[in-house]
Design brief:
The structure is a single chain. Helix content is 74%, strand content 1%. The chain has two domains: 2-67, no CATH class; 69-300, Orthogonal Bundle (MetI-like fold). It has 14 helices and two strands, in the order H-E-E-H-H-H-H-H-H-H-H-H-H-H-H-H. The chain is globular, with a radius of gyration of 26 Å. Strands 1-2 form a two-stranded antiparallel sheet.
């Protein structure tokens, strides 16, 4: 009798825990279905339909015509090139973050926590606020950069209307705002490196550079891989900064990214079919880069050290 009571009580506890777990999981699952899964399924169908406006009234099936339309649009190819160009900030972020984190972790620097906080603050700031700040910094008439150039005897530069400078300035913005995140992750990774490896390398006559190259870099390669994957995915979805700086797309459309192109198709031209096709092409590009990175990671990512 006592054993039956214990079993029944345990079953009640398990069922109660299961119900609690289901309720906790149901809310995000419902959110994913409403705002992720259902729109994704609709986007698949819309990519093969001619839709004018924001409803299915008068929609017709056109097969792959929407994909042929966007691939035949020169601006779409330009948007891909622009997006890949802007994504260079990801690689610069990784290099700078590693160097700064290494100095803050392995060198005697006063106020390390203060420096980490200062570097990390831009990452958590609003993208809109940061973009507007940089817009004023590089302003042709009132910007501090042009003011310093004038003090040095030079002439002011029209940064935002120069097609050769528009994306480099965006890369500078990306490096400034994104490096702090990598510094925090690399700082944590560096503290977990086995210091006995450095001692053994020192006994073998290895200098600091060789120790960094052959011990530090392999040991933190999983963190590098994570930053590379998330950075590239984020870079391929670039939209807010160029759109805020130049809603028209910048000089010679250098500010038009793939998502910006999608936005134009959907909300300026009201071509939801072409916009959906663009979204799926972008998704496939992201999947391709991700699969390629995972395949190549076997060659350089080490989980043993």
């Amino acid at each position: 009798m006592y054993l039956d009571k214990v079993v029944n009580k345990k079953r009640f506890r398990l069922s109660k825990e299961g119900l609690t777990g289901f309720l906790l999981a149901f809310i995000p699952l419902l959110g994913f279905c409403l705002f992720g899964l259902i729109p994704m399924i609709l986007a698949i169908g819309m990519a093969f339909m001619d839709i004018k406006g924001y409803n299915f009234d008068g929609a017709t099936f056109v097969g792959f015509a929407n994909f042929a339309d966007i691939f035949g649009d020169k601006l779409f190819g330009t948007s891909i090139v622009n997006t890949l160009y802007m994504s260079l900030s990801t690689f610069i972020n990784i290099v700078l973050a590693l160097l700064i984190a290494f100095l803050l972790t392995n060198k005697k620097v006063r106020g390390k926590k203060v420096f980490r906080t200062i570097y990390f603050v831009p990452f958590v700031c609003s993208v809109v606020a940061i973009t507007l700040m940089w817009q004023w910094i590089f302003n042709y008439r009132f910007g501090i950069i042009n003011h310093l150039i004038k003090l040095g005897g030079g002439e002011a530069i029209d940064w935002w209307n120069n097609p050769d400078l528009f994306i480099p300035v965006l890369i500078v913005m990306g490096v400034w705002s994104g490096t702090g995140y990598g510094i925090i992750l690399y700082g944590a990774a560096l503290t977990n490196v086995n210091h006995s490896l450095y001692e053994a390398a020192k006994v073998d006559g290895a200098n600091s550079f060789k120790s960094f190259l052959h011990i530090t870099v392999p040991a933190i390669s999983p963190t590098t891989f994570y930053l590379l994957i998330t950075g590239i995915i984020g870079a391929l979805q670039e939209f807010a900064r160029p759109q805020i700086l130049s809603p028209s797309g910048g000089p010679n459309d250098v500010g038009v990214t793939v998502v910006f192109y999608l936005y134009r198709r959907a909300f300026e031209y009201r071509e939801m079919g072409q916009a959906s096709a663009t979204a799926w092409v972008l998704a496939l590009i992201i999947v391709a880069f991700t699969v390629l990175n995972f395949a190549l990671s076997k060659l350089w990512v080490s989980y043993d050290t």
